[in-house]
């Protein structure tokens, strides 16, 4: 890796929730995350990692929603993050705090260029604690995974550290299946090709 890639890797590996760092999972997540991000950029897509909406990921998403740890929609996510940021900025600890990912913004794969630009602005505004991931699913499939059949969702904010950890562990499982050549995760894809 080049020096800038080494720095990017180290910064991201240190930014994940502490529980993932302490368990050693942060390094594996970082490797996979950056690999998928670079692949998306090479493919001409927004430079965020992309993961398939398979059954295990759908189950994690459903449980996270059931625990009321999601904010539905890009605008609502932005409002929630802005309110949290305003509250954090009033605390002295926030001034010295480095980057620590405690929120995930999940985007469907069928957004318009304008939608992704809005998401990018939101991500830049909250870079110190927000990471973005694209789920390879349209708004119907993502909505069904979160809220049931007939619901549509193009963006959802995972707004609690424990839910973020559960989701990242689910993404890591998908990555490990891919590495092992086990296609069970992709065979169970909820999105038709």
What does the model show?
There is one protein chain. With 193 residues, the protein is α/β, with parallel strands linked by helices. The chain has a single domain (48-187), classed as 60s Ribosomal Protein L30, Chain: A (2-Layer Sandwich), CATH 3.30.1330. It is built from 10 helices and 5 strands, in the order αααβαβααβαβαβαα. It has helices at 3-15, 18-23, 25-42, 55-66, 74-89, 92-96, 113-125, 139-147, 161-179, 184-187, and strands at 50-52, 70-72, 103-108, 130-136, 155-158. Strands 1-4-3-5-2 form a 5-stranded mixed sheet. The longest helix is centred in the last third of the chain and has 19 residues, at 161-179.
């Amino acid at each position: 890796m080049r020096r800038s890639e080494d720095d990017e890797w180290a910064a991201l590996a240190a930014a994940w929730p502490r529980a993932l760092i302490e368990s050693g999972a942060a390094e594996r997540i970082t490797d996979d995350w950056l690999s998928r991000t670079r692949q998306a950029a090479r493919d001409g897509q927004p430079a965020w990692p992309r993961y398939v909406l398979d059954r295990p990921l759908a189950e994690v998403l459903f449980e996270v929603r059931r625990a009321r740890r999601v904010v539905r929609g890009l605008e609502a996510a932005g409002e929630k993050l802005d309110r949290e940021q305003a509250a954090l900025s009033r605390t002295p600890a926030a001034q010295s705090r480095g980057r620590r990912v405690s929120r995930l913004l999940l985007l469907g794969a069928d957004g318009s260029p304008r939608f992704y630009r809005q998401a990018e602005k939101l991500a830049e505004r909250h870079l110190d604690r927000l990471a973005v991931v694209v789920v390879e699913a349209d708004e119907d499939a993502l909505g069904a995974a979160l809220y049931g059949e007939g619901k549509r969702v193009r963006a959802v904010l995972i707004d609690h550290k424990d839910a973020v950890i559960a989701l990242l562990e689910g993404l890591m499982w998908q990555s490990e299946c891919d590495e092992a050549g086990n296609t069970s995760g992709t065979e169970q894809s909820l999105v038709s090709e």
